[in-house]
User: Fold GPI ethanolamine phosphate transferase 2 from Wickerhamomyces ciferrii.
Amino acid sequence: MRWYHILLLAVLQIAGLLVFCLGFFPSKVVLKGFGEFDNGNYDPQFNKIVFMVVDALRSDFIFSEDSSMLYVQSLLREGSALGFTAYSNPPTVTLPRLKGITTGSTPNFLDAVLNVVEEDSSSTLANQDSWITQLKKADKRIHMYGDDTWIKLFPSVFDEVDGTGSFFVSDFTEVDNNVTRHLDHELSEQSWDCLILHYLGLDHIGHKGGPKSIFMSPKQREMDSIVEKIHSKLDDDTLMVLLGDHGMNDIGNHGGSSAGETSAGLVFISNKLRKLNSNAKVPLPKNEDFKFLTKVQQIDLVPTISNLLRLPIPRNNLGIMIKEFLPLWSADQQLNLMKENLKNYENLKGEVTNLEDINMIYDFLINSQSGLTQSATNYLTDKMLCGIVMLIFSSLFVLLYLYNTVQLYSIWFYSLNILYGITMFGSSFVEEEYQIWWWFATFFIVFLCYGRPSNLLYILFLIRLVRGWNNTGQKYIGDTIFQYLQEHPFINWLLVFLTISVYGFSLNNGAFSLFSPLLSFLISFLLSITCFTFKLLFSLANGDEIPKELVGLAAFTMESLGVDNAQDSLIDLARMFYYMVLAVLVLRLGLKFKSYDYWFFTDLHNLLSFVLIFQTSLQNIPLFLVFLGIKHQVGLVSGNSMGLKKSNRISFVSLFCLILQHLSFFSLGQSNSLATVDLSNAYNGISGYNILAVGVLTFISNFSTPIFWSFGSLSILFENKEKLAPIKYEVLKTRWLVSTSFYTIGTTFTLIACYALRYHLFIWTVFSPKLLYTLAWNLLMNGLVEILCLLLTILH
Ligand SMILES: *[C@@H]1O[C@H](CO)[C@@H](O)[C@H](O)[C@H]1NC(C)=O
Assistant:
């Protein structure tokens, strides 16, 4: 195979995948034009509205007995407020949710990705109907303060506006103070008809510290006092709505479809609602399903707001007027306004029913709703098929090539790739992918260590530790090492200290010590201590408990940096660390050219490990210690067992590291759901708006362990003392073969599964995120990281 064959194959593979995605994530069909009244023969209940979004306000944050929102609860008890648990459609990310909350339709999946990327113009609602545009058409004045996603969605709609950036999830206070500081003025003048507030602090606390963070309760109290402040200033003709755009899961992230993420709180507040005599018995005991009071669809608030303010219902709305509010109107008027909702559905379905009875209208709407939310997507099947054909071609190409280079281990490639591919067709398999890799790893090790029982037991034990670090599937929820470390900070810090020291010692033992022992010691010591203190101050700034033995070190560091709280020291420390890494890297490459070839990959790998540890959450750091054990053992076993031929040895190590890349990815707590994308380390050392740097850091922190094993295989292969030059190209070729065959064949199966199951119930919750992860693995791990490895090997 020639180099241009390889290039062609890579291009074919990436292009096929991208073409498929264009067909799979098309922009959504929406009906053009704006909703109008059929006759609109009913009275408005309110003429103004305050719409207060608290990002990630999960239902239990308002209604449960752990909630600190006592004022809202007192309103619910006395009947001045009506509360609901609102089901928010996945993907549970702010941008698609805001679209749902304003237009009443279900989102386009790609919105979720664009929300993370933050820069897009394709997602405005300028030409789509929503209750905001309806207000504007009725010449109402709208003021908006908070998350600037609103401004992106509705450019030039707001009469007064001050957006806050959602970019820095580490900011808990400024994002909210920038909203609150406008309140006094806005509440005394009341020169608006609609006031939109979007508070981000609570979501940021979730991303950083989870729902049980020590900052959560004070933040809820703050939000509660804001509700009190607003409510006390409003007259009876103004409606206030308090809601979360989505919820959060147990670790404070969101994006997926678990109960916590989809259960948002929703409260309508006005003294006028006392007429409805609904006196909720809050606070309620906590429950697993996050179901409190009545459950509604979040988009139901769209026709409800339209009717309460007497506005035409938005054209693409799929929400249903919330029944509890109907008694505010007389029986005739109730029928009239429900007919508006009915007409809106008839337009979407293209059928006329002429129903004249409220209960029958409700039956019709409820029966139609789920069907309409499902069918609102249209795929471009020719693009999808085109992508699949391109990938099938590249798969055949790879399979033929594998067939021609018959090796003992080709059989492993075939079975691994095909087995993995087949599992893509089961939604449970996709959710439980962790288990699949655990079985692959176990079988492979048993095979590898044939005849070496002590190594076998040792590696199996270590792999079992890796497996037990986190749970990511839906089915096996049990105790994990991660939780244990969370509950025992002392042991956690001890292990972190040990891990960082061990990597420090290894670096100290590398080529630097041949060059100058003093320099070597300084480099290793400074890197270790900076990494460790950063982690310490990071925890302190997050309000986590740290062992008292370390308090002195933290205080000393802050004093030396001349700052008085931990938060202020983080950016300086992180930059110091990264500059040091850069300097050491340059130095090591320099030594290389003075022909210190020895330990080249090991040194680079140790240095890289520091970066990966730096970007990993505290409880996961000791994983890297376990990895070191596994790496050492694999080096031993593959080096001298079974009289392995050299080329077989290379295949073995490459394949094993590929398996470990995937296993360890899930052991970090990652999964095939957007909800596990971890942002807590994405801002280390960043102070300005720098999307590239945040992107790189997000990638490194979410893929830290796969990156470790990707470089790890090079370090294992080149560590032993045989002459390197002859095996260099052999290593390159085999590595390429292993990863290309896996990614090509795996991706082909994934695409076929997504195509075949495109009308499956779980297509948006399970298969689409999986496709995005496939894209990330292909472009970033098999693309970017492999290319880096390739360049380094050539350099060697
Ligand atoms: C808060 O407002 C100030 C002054 O307008 C601005 O400089 C700052 O960037 C704002 N903060 C955020 C998070 O938007």
